[in-house]
Amino acid sequence: MNVLVLNSGSSSQKSALFAIPAGDLTEDPLKPLWKNEIEWKPGEENRKSAIRSLLGSIWSGPKAVLSGPEQIHGVGHRVVHGGRYLFDPTLLTPAVEKEISDAAKFAPLHNRSELEGVAIIRDLLGNVPQVAVFDTGFHRTLPPAAATYPGPYEWRQQGILRYGFHGINHQYCARRAPQLLKADPGTLKLISCHLGNGCSLAAINGGKSVDTTMGFTPLDGLMMGTRSGSLDPGILTFLMRESSGSAKQGSKDLDDTLNHKSGLLGISGVSGDMREIVKASKSGNERATLAFDMFVHHLRAGIAAMAASLGGVDAIVFTAGIGEHSPEVRTTTCEGLAFLGVKLDSAKNADSKADSIISVPDSRVIVLVIAAQEDWEIARQTSQLV
């Protein structure tokens, strides 16, 4: 089965094609036959033209891997927010698309972009089965005490809840880690650290998410590349009161500041990219050093909180861009987790390979690096449903 995966952003399109054999798909991830990413100026016509050009390279040109569009048997879409009612991978129908549209009030840029991608695929490929895989779905198992915010109870009734994000990759890590450890997934207490431009932790007990750092939106939790993470809400009400503009403009400015001008970039003034932060810090840039130290401080505190939610921890997974490629972050973070019994192997950490153990044999908590595999997880779930 040839499964196309679309990860639609507000101004970019990531896509991959997998040829999936029949049978058990729980072992090592497959490499895609084809993979590509493009960017464009926002707008449905621009998106349609870009996706048409992108997909055309699958069956025409020097890098073609299929003879024609009829060889695509299913399309899987990453949908950021499933709202209150959509959790499991779901075949797209008009009713499901309406639910995704209704959930766009929680994630307007992402959900609308993803629905545009669905419509464009239908236009280009006809009635090929399309499947929505939800980034919030894995966290549906959060207990009420973890999912409910301590505001008025009416917030919960309105759908103001901790939804959590990065669920597709957290779910993949929850499946992959027991394979690498040759452990029973039903008994494993795991902390998955998805550290990229966006960052979140998940406390996973027996394969189920029981706590996570992102919340009602992907702005909550850890310090990130350009996002603030958790803040005292009084800061926001203070800034709104002090704003000289209209409430609407003040809200828009705050949203832009918190999402695009904060985090590593806001503190360092250098970049939201951890590689640039580390480089600048080693060159003596004090603001970059502060940004690095803050990132690790919040990460350690978050891991300790997840361990408390689990009542202990067997393994910690580092995944995604920073998690996989920054030995400095892993070293400094784990040094502060010695009280949990974490001991890194410095040589393995410095030369870490994807899907490997980087702790010493007598470490009470095993530490792994696992390559993020969102595209593969979407393709795997799509093939099973189709």
Description:
The protein is an alpha/beta fold and 386 residues long. The protein has 2 domains: 2-134, ATPase, nucleotide binding domain (Nucleotidyltransferase, domain 5, 2-Layer Sandwich); 180-369, 2-Layer Sandwich (Nucleotidyltransferase, domain 5). The protein has 15 helices and 12 strands. It has helices spanning 44-59, 94-102, 108-125, 144-147, 153-157, 167-181, 233-242, 247-260, 263-268, 274-282, 286-310, 320-325, 327-335, 346-350, 374-385, and strands at residues 2-8, 12-19, 34-39, 74-79, 90-91, 130-134, 189-195, 199-205, 208-212, 315-319, 356-357, 366-369. Strands 3-2-1-4-6-5 form a 6-stranded mixed sheet, with helices on both faces. The longest helix is centred in the last third of the chain and has 25 residues, at 286-310. The model has no long low-confidence stretch (mean pLDDT 91).
Lay out the secondary structure.
Elements: E1 2-8, E2 12-19, E3 34-39, H1 44-59, E4 74-79, E5 90-91, H2 94-102, H3 108-125, E6 130-134, H4 144-147, H5 153-157, H6 167-181, E7 189-195, E8 199-205, E9 208-212, H7 233-242, H8 247-260, H9 263-268, H10 274-282, H11 286-310, E10 315-319, H12 320-325, H13 327-335, H14 346-350, E11 356-357, E12 366-369, H15 374-385
Parallel strand pairs: 1-4, 4-6, 7-10, 10-12
Antiparallel strand pairs: 1-2, 2-3, 5-6, 7-8, 8-9, 11-12
